[in-house]
Write a structure and sequence with these properties.
Elements (H helix, E strand, L loop, with lengths): L5 E7 L4 E4 L10 E6 L8 E5 L10 E3 L4 E5 L11 E5 L4 E7 L1
Antiparallel strand pairs: 1-8, 2-7, 3-6, 3-8, 4-5, 4-7
């Protein structure tokens, strides 16, 4: 059985946009890790779990090199739905690993 794995960096701008879709893989998403790999300290990325737009400074706020993750554990299933993100500037980069 082949496992879906995503490892990529996506641009995040000053307007909210979807960075991860509802997970469609076999058995659901097992884990996801988001890291702000933006080049500048002012490129602060805010993340919202769900279909609502991300709002700067609210939700999961990731400063340069900060990480947020979620994974299955002891009966808990990690987040399966969409993920939205917005950057305080137009230069954000969000590295995403999900499987």
């Amino acid at each position: 059985m082949e496992t879906y794995v995503r490892n990529e960096a996506v641009a995040v701008i000053a307007t909210s946009g979807q960075v991860a879709d509802t997970f469609q893989g076999r058995g659901g998403r097992v884990n996801i890790v988001l890291r702000n790999t933006s080049p500048n300290a002012i490129d602060i990325i805010s993340v919202n779990l769900g279909v609502a737009s991300a709002v700067a400074g609210t939700g999961i706020v990731l400063r340069q090199n900060e990480v947020w993750g979620d994974s299955n554990d002891s009966g808990y299933q990690c987040w399966q739905d969409r993920i939205q993100a917005v950057c305080a500037t137009a230069n954000g980069i969000l590295s995403i690993m999900e499987r």
